[in-house]
Amino acid sequence: MLKEVRTRYAPSPTGYMHIGNLRSAIFEYLAARAKGGKFILRIEDTDQARLVEGAVDVIYNTLAAIGITHDEGPDVGGDYGPYVQSERKHLYLPYALELVEKGHAYHCFCKKDRLDALREEAQSAGKQFKYDRHCLNLSSEEVQEKLASGNEFVIRQLMPDTGTTTYYDEVFGNLTFDNSTLEDQILIKSDGFPTYNFANVIDDHTMNITHILRGSEYLSSTPKFVHLYNAFGWDIPTFVHLPLVVKSDGSKISKRNGDAMFQDMIDAGYLPEAILNYTVLLGWSPGDEREFFTLQELEQVFDIKGISKSPSTLDYNKLKWMNGEYIRKLDLEGFTRIAAPWIKDGIGNLELDYGKIAAMIQKRTNLLGDIPDSVSFLKEINSIDPELYNHKKMQCDPLAALDLLPEAYKTLEAITEWEHNAIYDTLSAKALELGIKNGKIMWPVRVALTSRPVTPGGAIEIAEILGKKETLDRINIAIKQLEELNG
Ligand code: GLU
User: Fold this and answer.
1) I need a labelling partner for 187 at 20 to 30 A (CA). Which of 175, 206, 363, 366 fits?
2) Rounded to the nearest 10 degrees, how much is the dihedral formed by the CA atoms of 462, 464, 470, 471?
3) Helices 420-434 + 459-466 axis angle, to 10
4) Residues within a 6 A CB radius of ligand 1
5) Which ligand 1 atom minimizes the distance to the CA of 44?
6) Phi-psi region of 348 (alpha: psi -120 to 50; beta: other; left: phi over 0)
7) Contact 47, 12 (CB under 8 A)
8) Which entry of 255, 344, 437, 468 is annotated as an active-site residue?
């Protein structure tokens, strides 16, 4: 019988989630779901100095926002808990001692001063620092004695220093590393906490994890993990390293620079569905031209075989375009609800019809964050730039505007029921009467109402939203301005 696929997302709560972290979570989740397996959330907080308050909530909230649910984890429990490494602290030392027993690890009592001096020496010689195994030669009596007298210690893994280590990665294939590059890494730190390099192996094994998906920055640590699995005599899980995500200048996205943080993207007006869809395409493809996927569809089609090893570039233009497509997919009611706070940002407490504003802007909005500016003219406009009246195709210029705006004013003033068709019919009838094209009268009206070269809607839509009084007031002001200009 095939083993149940079990994957895990194992974030360290050290900051906010960027798109690379999010991609690991999504790929781990999908790799499990696509095989009917289990997805586990494990919090890796062994580096107590780097903990950030609230960071675990950020992880929960982000997963929830994109619709990813975990089958086991700190909040939902499960058969393999605890799922927070600090709560598992007592579990690691016995495993490390087992390795000491088997000759694969040893106690080290070297003080910081000594290690610092060694490190400096290596640095000035231009060499990579490697622990010199000073404590490897201690007899077990000496070790016991030092422990009994309360000396601080760490436990180090004894690495082979000749030969090579090869492991297979699902994406990168067979990878071979020189053992001489492997350091006798620390497994248990002097504060009693395991290092990430030790804890991840113990946890993945004891939680029965079958597939490990993580960033390619872990490629070179994996030989050390392989030695740990072998030292314990444990099965080696399937390794799946994910390609780098780089910015358009080729540099790596990083937590430290605050790059591509999920929450910042939401705050800028990207929809979670679009972020999810875009993120999944960073290094994965379905093998055909399809680009749009819901989470449910991805659960069906995702396959580890579609992961590529070449770095993928975070392209905000593409993300923005995709976001616009998602905005277009929303029904008007849904879009109005989502757009409402952004509209309010643009028009303040003005009581206009949000549904009508939403209907006007939905076609042209790619980013919710662009909405406040695109609708702010509804709130107020400053003086109109007369240049805006110039439009060759509409045969309009400031003089023509000065002729036509009073006509528009009169005819609009007579409308009793202020709605789209009435406004349109009235202005069209006026154009017909004057023997001009519709556009020639619509253009100056649009300019008078907005004072902008480009607006998310035409004169009629905008007049309807502004209401009769405001429309007439703005046309009036525009006429006065033109009169002054023309002396
Ligand atoms: N805690 C590690 C990180 O946040 C997890 C890496 C892994 O998936 O093993 O990078």
Assistant:
1) 175
2) 70
3) 130
4) 10-12, 44, 196, 200, 214
5) 1
6) left
7) yes
8) 255
Q: Which CATH number fits domain 91-188: 3.40.430.10, 3.40.50.300, 3.90.800.10, 1.10.8.10?
A: 3.90.800.10
Type of residue at 87: E
Written as six digits, the tokens of 217 are 């920055």
Distances 21 to 18, 27, 48, 268 between C-alpha atoms, Å: 5, 10, 20, 19
pLDDT at 1: 63
Under DSSP, is residue 426 helix (H, G, I), strand (E, B) or coil? helix
The answer on pLDDT for 330 being more than 80 is: yes
Instruction: Look at strands 173-178 and 186-188 and give their pairing.
Output: unpaired
pLDDT > 90 in the chain, percent: 89
Contact assessment for residue 196 and residue 46, using Cβ atoms and an 8 Å cutoff:
yes
pTM of the predicted protein model: 0.92
CB 272 within 8 Å of CB 66:
yes
The third-level CATH classification (topology) of the domain covering 381-487 is Arc Repressor Mutant, subunit A (1.10.10)
List the structure tokens of 77: 């429990």
**Lookup: tokens for 93:** 């030392």
Torsion of CA 263, 244, 305, 71, to 10 degrees: -40
Which spans in 34-170 are helix H?
55-66, 89-102, 112-124, 140-148
Pocket residue to mutate for ligand 1, from 14, 22, 44, 256, most atoms within 8 A of Cβ: 44
Give the three-class secondary structure for 194.
strand
